[in-house]
Design goal:
By secondary structure, the protein is an alpha+beta fold. The chain is built from 13 helices and 14 strands. Strands 5, 6, 7, 8, 9, 10, 11, 12, 13 and 14 form a 10-stranded antiparallel beta sheet that branches. It has a two-stranded antiparallel sheet with strand order 1-2. A two-stranded antiparallel sheet has the order 3-4. The radius of gyration is 26 Å and the shape is globular.
């Protein structure tokens, strides 16, 4: 007699053997399967439903748990409690992803990396949801779907298409700054442990006295920055398409815990008045000379997920997750992402995605006006009324002080004569200033040659009109850049 298996059905009924169906045997080893075999039906039905919609962007990722520790006092800048005292520790979950590829795509492609961190604070979850380069391709959120579609597969051939990629960027040249970053060395990191994380957007830090400063978040790898060559990345994509994911997992498994320093840049409202369009334009950066990095703390990843699907695939990040003391700014892309990201999670994971373990805050949640829906895993607030200003709660509302409330005040930026309408920011010479500085002052000769080679290689098979458009676009950054690119394209054509 076989020993008891201790396995059960989904609702707890014991099973003698989860590996054998109930059948009526027939001649030749066949068997008729009855509908009463609940084990078989549950097994097949669940298998058909094991996959959830993958993220439209940032589908492929590595992730791990860790801890953030405050190392420098910035309590005069923000009332956020998790940043209040030196030595204070906060658990975190970090997810680092490619952008354009599907869940099964290679880790080592040339692509912008997403860098997301969830801080489980005593005031609820706070997320930094950024990228591994400091700027983005577009500044108008209505273009966000389009820029991502242009980086994906052609709707007819279902293959990557360089004509789509460059067609978008040539006709939306505000992307030129991000392109200079993408086609340089940092476009292919050699490890996710050695990349920089940028919050990209402008936020507000609200001090205990209610005053505020604008800020940007930076996470700098304490392992140093490392990048892979195009040839090595291509080799790794074939040998081990999960190279970055495995490399992070293996490092943590052996106790080689990666760490990042958290820094902020801050800007006074008076300085912001003079800073111009770069204030809330995510195609531009704040000059470190005028707005230096201020150290805040250290994040260390020290625990691998016990189950990737449950803890990383189901993790939901959004820049709308902000604790009191940190709030949003009138950055149009940030405003749009604050809707789009939670909405993506409602689609992927369901209306109650906050109930899932990686998204649960470590503090009690009281949101009785957000209830019901599929996969409710709580008591659903029992008999508590589901409507506001009811008799049992009207006089029990806790007051939150103005110094820590997420009161979004942007009226300081409204000017007389401002009208609601299609207020496009056209590309101007300002869009080429910072990429020009990157080319001239940051890149050395070797990096310039590498950049030209990378861009020329990406133009293989692209139409002549688009090639001319790409040369012209980068020629506006720097004539040397355009000339070198044109020469490299001619050389490649001769070969």
């Amino acid at each position: 007699m076989k020993p008891a298996s201790n396995f059960t059905l989904g609702e707890g009924q014991p099973l003698s053997d989860p590996a054998v169906s109930t059948t009526l045997p027939t001649f030749g080893g066949g068997g008729l399967v009855p509908l009463q075999d609940t084990l078989l039906l549950e097994t097949l039905a669940h298998f058909n439903r094991e996959r959830i919609p993958e993220r439209v962007v940032h589908a492929k990722a590595a992730g791990a748990w860790g801890e953030f520790e405050v190392t420098h006092d910035i309590s005069h800048l923000t009332a956020a409690k998790f940043l209040q005292s030196v030595g204070k520790k906060t658990p975190v979950l970090c997810r680092i992803s490619t952008t354009g590829g599907e869940k099964g795509s290679p880790d080592t492609v040339r692509d912008i990396r997403g860098f997301s961190v969830k801080f489980y604070t005593e005031e609820g979850n706070h997320d930094i949801v950024g990228n591994h380069v400091p700027v983005f391709f577009v500044r108008d959120p209505v273009k966000f779907p389009s820029v991502n579609r242009s980086h994906k597969k052609h709707p007819q051939s279902n293959t990557a298409d360089a004509n789509m990629f460059w067609d978008f960027h040539v006709h939306n040249p505000e992307s030129v700054h991000a392109l200079v970053h993408l086609f340089g060395s940092r476009g292919i990191p050699d490890s996710v442990r050695r990349i920089t994380g940028f919050g990209v957007h402008t936020f507000k830090l609200v001090a205990p006295d209610g005053s505020f400063k604008y800020c940007k978040f930076h996470l700098r790898s304490l392992q140093g920055v490392g990048n892979a060559s195009t040839d090595e990345a291509t080799r790794l994509a074939g040998v081990n398409p999960d190279f970055h994911t495995q490399e992070l997992f293996d490092a943590i498994s052996r106790g080689d815990y990666p760490s990042w320093g958290l820094y902020i840049q801050v800007m006074d409202p008076e300085q912001a008045e003079r800073h111009g369009l770069a204030m809330f334009d995510i195609t531009k950066v704040w000059n470190h000379k005028y707005f230096p990095l201020i150290p805040v703390g250290k994040m260390t990843l020290n625990k691998n997920p016990a189950n990737y699907f449950a803890e990383i695939e189901q993790a939901a990040f959004s820049p709308s997750n902000m604790v009191p003391g940190i709030t949003s700014s009138p950055d149009p892309m940030l405003q749009a992402r604050m809707f789009a990201y939670p909405d993506a999670q409602r689609y992927r994971l369901g209306a109650n995605y906050q109930h899932l373990p990686p998204n649960q805050p470590i503090v009690p949640v009281k949101a009785p006006y957000q209830r019901d829906g599929a996969a409710t895993t709580t008591s659903n607030y029992g008999a508590t009324p589901s409507y506001v200003h009811n008799g049992s709660t009207r006089h029990g509302i806790r007051s939150v002080s103005a110094s820590t409330a997420q009161a979004v005040r942007h009226d300081e930026w409204l000017r007389g004569g401002t009208t609601l309408g299609l207020n496009e920011i056209p590309d101007t010479e300002d869009d080429y200033v910072q990429p020009r500085e990157l080319w001239r002052r940051v890149f050395d000769d070797a990096e310039r040659r590498l950049w030209v080679s990378n861009v020329a290689g990406s133009l293989d098979g692209v139409s002549d009109d688009l090639k001319r458009g790409v040369i012209e676009m980068f020629g506006r950054v720097d004539s040397e850049m355009g000339n070198m690119l044109a020469a490299k394209i001619r050389e490649t054509a001769r070969l």
